[in-house]
Amino acid sequence: MGNCWFARNDAGRLAGYITLFADCLSVQRPLLESENVQYRTFPAVKIGLLAVDNRAKGLGTVLMHWVFRYVAGELSPLLAACRASKGRR
User: In terms of residue numbers, what domain contains 12?
Assistant: First the structure.
């Protein structure tokens, strides 16, 4: 599942966009064995596309900062809740 977000300039024209996809990171050995975490897959977010009009100076950096804040503030709490509810079964 993926989503696309658009950035527009002051005139309302498309200045850039970014797409994010749900993904997972698979590892051979549990990464957090010392903390008694046995998971071999971890939720991840993949950037599919990132495009910025060359006249929109700095917009690529702004979009990347936005992605980090969005993933940390909006998505991470949801993913942690999903992982916790799976573990209770």
Answer: 2-87
Q: What is the pLDDT, as a whole number, of residue 63?
A: 96
Q: 21: left (phi > 0), else alpha (psi -120 to 50), else beta?
A: beta
Q: Interior CA angle at 78 toward 59 and 74, to 5°?
A: 25
Total domains in the chain come to 1
CA 82 – CA 42 distance, rounded (Å): 11
**Domain harbouring 61, CATH code:** 3.40.630.30
Average pLDDT, the chain: 84
Please give the model's pTM, rounded to 2 decimal places: 0.72
